[in-house]
Amino acid sequence: MKNNLLWTVAFALLLFTSVAYGQATRTWVSGVGDDANPCSRTAPCKTFAGAISKTAAGGEINAIDPGGYGAVTITKSITIDGGGTFASILSAFTNGIIINAAATDVVNLRNLSIDGAGTGIDGIRFLAGKTLNVQNVVIFNITGDGIEASTASAGDLIVENVSISDCGGSGIAALSSVPPLGATISRTRVQSCSRGITAGSGSVVSIRDSDLSLNSIGLFVNGGNTQANADTVRFASNGNGINASAGVVRFINSTFFSNGVGINPTGGSICSAGDSIFAGNGTNGTPSPNSGPCTITGQ
To answer: By C-alpha distance, which of 202, 186, 105 is closest to 149?
Structure first.
């Protein structure tokens, strides 16, 4: 009986070790790969979903050549990088990438193209995790949000050099049921969406060096405990450049060209440093009094 127990324990340890060793720190996908492969450089997998189960937490998936690598759900720290080739996801009738990771996990998405083909839901959904970094990504032709961060606990969304177009929802939606959700957006363009960027309840959103054009609303703030800060942002040809139904928006050194309404505080506060440019709008709009949480000062 004792020997049987020892053999059982030894077998379990061997099985665990085999599974652990089966996961590599770096894996590869190829348009001509096979998910039955070990996802090595010489024997790549065909999809991100196939590679992720063979990639260790904290590891990286790389694309060898151009290809469509399929939708994927991420539940651990990982990097997916399509740099050096055309790595794409066709997400018709589904979400392109879902992140539902642990509170300590960091996920990096780089150099990807996500095409919803007119029926895709969200390009990227960030449901749980410590940090999501999105860099050099193109998202288009979707019915929902380009990037939706809808976390139930604190987290950070970092978006850099991203292009989002033709979406039925928001290009970027920062929402949280338990604040704070911090979103930092830089060198990003959102156009032809219902809303360019939405800062919802429990979020603090900072936007810099970006372009929000041809949307129904460029920047929409609708949470009572929400802050949005815009620095050097172009709002062009939107229905509303900025609309705040709740919360606070502060903008400096920005331009408002050919919008129906430049700024529209419909219940929230929109604060100006007085250094922005308005031209060609149906109505420029009037900023809120520079006091309280709306105060912008020079130091």
So the answer is: 202
At 110-135, the pLDDT tens digits run 999 999 999 999 999 999 999 999 99
How far does Cα 113 stand from its chain's mean position?
13
* CA distances (Å), origin 96, targets 81, 121, 190, 191, 284: 15, 8, 18, 19, 38
Q: Show the tokens assigned to 189.
A: 């363009």
Phi, psi of 297 (to 5 degrees): -125, 155
> pLDDT tens-digit profile of 178-207?
668 999 999 999 999 999 999 998 899 999
Q: pTM score, two decimals?
A: 0.91
Residues 115 and 244: their CA atoms lie apart, in Å, by 30
Q: Domain spanning 58-294: which superfamily?
A: Single-stranded right-handed beta-helix, Pectin lyase-like (2.160.20.10)
Domain boundaries defined on the chain: 58-294
Do 239 and 215 form a contact (C-beta atoms < 8 A)? yes
- Per-residue DSSP letter, 159: E
What is the share, in percent, of the chain residues with pLDDT greater than 90?
Answer: 83
Helices (H) and strands (E) in the chain, counts: 2, 24
